[in-house]
Structure formats: C-alpha cells, structure tokens
Design brief:
- There is one protein chain.
- By secondary structure, this protein is of the alpha/beta class.
- The protein has a single domain (about 5-225), classed as Alpha-Beta Barrel (TIM Barrel).
- It contains nine helices and eight strands.
- The chain has an eight-stranded parallel β-sheet.
- Bound molecules: pyridoxal-5'-phosphate (PLP).
- Pyridoxal-5'-phosphate binds near residues 23, 153, 212 and 214.
C-alpha cells in the first residue's frame, strides 16, 4: 500500500463533517508531497523546528496544524503561517500566542487541550481547570486568538471501552463548553480527537478532526530529524 492508497482508503471511511489532519512528523518532504498530490492539504507536525523548514519548502496552500506540546519560546517560529494550534494547555500559553499573533498582525486559531487519559504524562487542562480558565474571562480580551474547540488524546491501551469512555467524556465536555461560553460563537465547532489506532471510536464519539500519522505514512523513523 502506498501513501496515496492509504489516504484514499482513509478518506473513503470519513463521514461528512470529519476532517483529516495527516500527521507527517518525522516523515520527509517526499512523503508529504505524495500526500499533497493525492489531494491532502492539512498536515500536522509536533515540533516547531521541523514544521518550519517543511513549510518553507512545500506548497503554500498547505494548512499546517501544530499538534504537539508548544513551548512558549517556539511560538515565534510558527506564528506567521500556522493554521491551527491544537495543544493549548494553559492560559499563559494562550496569552503568549496572542502576543506573538498581535505582533504578526494575525488572528490564530487555537484548540484547548484537555487531559482525558489515564497516563500522567499527557498534557492538558483538567475539566475543572478549563472551566476556571473560561469563567475567569481574561481570555476574552485576547483579540488575536480564536478558540475554535477542544482537543484530547485517549489512553494508549487496547481497551476500546476505556478509549470510548474517555472520548465520550470529552465530547460531553465539548457540549458543556459550547453551550456555556461559546453558544453564539460559530467558530467554536471543532473537536480534535482520534489517531491511527482509535479514530473509528473517536468519530463515533463526535470527533470533527482526526489526527492520523502512521496509518498513512507508515512507522515513524525517529532518526530522521
Ligand atoms: C503523533 C501524533 C498523532 C498521530 O499518531 P499516529 O498514531 O501515528 O496516528 C496524533 N496526535 C498527536 C498529538 C500526535 O503527537
């Protein structure tokens, strides 16, 4: 199976309203170019120092999504072209993105990342931390960011019932956040969840953006960069 075959198969399974982020981290430009020729336009990267040269070298109508943990000292490397930042996990990071975005005269689309997995290592707000941040209201003064929805990663497990429970909890929280703070905000509509091994479950639970890497590009070779 080629990248083109993998993409076509994946896209044929996607219901209306679900978009595919092709996660190209650790894969070379040639792999992205093949996916691009097959019609893919949204690509996800998790490191600023990798996304930057890819953006410089590849077609300018690619929409680059930053899906990893964003360090504040890396924001300026991506602010001029990033299309959506999936992993906002603190008010401080949101405020820093806003500051850089204002300097770049852009408004940056952002998703708030929620911690829904069992593992301690995954980043993200707890539901209560997120509620407190939104209640506080200071985010509403950040006019160069646009909160477009939520993102989360399920526990890395074979237990599909657990994965389903975690995705459903995020989906319910999305509904609460939408109705409480964003009821009149049409931009707040994205729920980013689902990766190669769990995107079917994520779609059933209401995902609008799946982030799929190895199922398209094969296993990652971490020595590539
Ligand atoms: C790497 C990564 C993915 C893609 O993972 P695959 O298992 O290769 O599909 C999705 N989301 C995030 C946040 C990632 O870091």
């Amino acid at each position: 199976m080629t990248i083109t075959d993998n993409l076509n198969k994946l896209r044929s399974e996607l219901p209306d309203g679900v978009q595919l982020v092709a996660v190209s981290k650790f894969h070379p430009n040639e792999a992205i170019e093949e996916a691009y020729r097959a019609g893919q336009r949204i690509f996800g990267e998790s490191r600023a120092q990798e996304m930057q040269p890819k953006h410089a070298a590849l077609p300018k109508d690619i929409r680059w999504h930053f899906i990893g943990h964003l360090q504040t000292n890396k924001i300026k490397q991506i602010i001029a072209y990033v299309d959506l930042i999936h992993g906002i996990d603190s008010f401080k990071l949101l405020a820093e993105v806003n500051r850089h975005a204002a300097a770049a005269e852009r408004t940056i689309n952002c998703l708030l990342q929620l911690h829904i997995a069992e593992e301690e290592t995954k980043f993200g707000f707890s539901f209560d931390e997120c509620r407190r941040m939104l209640d506080d209201g200071a985010w509403q003064k950040l006019t160069n960011i646009r909160i477009c929805g939520l993102m989360g990663m399920a526990t890395d497990t074979d237990n599909t019932e657990q994965i389903r429970k975690e995705f459903c909890s995020l989906s319910n929280f999305f509904a609460e956040v939408k109705s409480t703070w964003f009821a009149r905000d049409e931009a707040f509509k994205e729920l980013s969840m689902g990766m190669s091994h769990d995107y079917h479950i994520a779609i059933e639970a209401g995902s609008t953006l799946i982030r799929v890497g190895s199922k398209i590009f094969g296993e990652r070779n971490y020595t590539n960069g």
